[in-house]
């Protein structure tokens, strides 16, 4: 999350985040599914906003969505029950799949 915040929640920050998630899929195989979901969410942001202006209110809202995914996945890692971990992964996957990223009207 620090990368995204330090780069003002811009497209390049999400691109870097997706790259890091891809690396961690290999280096942290026990969390591969979580990193894969975050990579998908980051890449969707990049795909939508790479070719257009990004309004700060949209950037802030998308950041809060992405942060909620990270926070929930992080909390599930502390969970001892594998069923609860899987439920969290499925819930986040559904949220990412159904999230409508709004394009700027600029």
From TrEMBL:
Q: What is this protein called?
A: Uncharacterized protein
């Amino acid at each position: 999350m620090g990368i995204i915040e330090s780069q003002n929640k811009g497209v390049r920050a999400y691109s870097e985040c997706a790259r890091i998630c891809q690396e961690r899929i290999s280096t942290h195989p026990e969390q591969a599914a979580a990193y894969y979901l975050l990579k998908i969410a980051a890449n969707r942001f990049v795909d939508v906003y790479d070719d257009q202006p990004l309004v700060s209110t949209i950037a802030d809202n998308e950041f809060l969505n992405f942060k909620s995914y990270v926070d929930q996945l992080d909390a599930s890692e502390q969970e001892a029950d594998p069923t609860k971990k899987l439920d969290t992964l499925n819930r986040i996957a559904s949220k990412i799949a159904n999230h409508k990223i709004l394009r700027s009207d600029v």
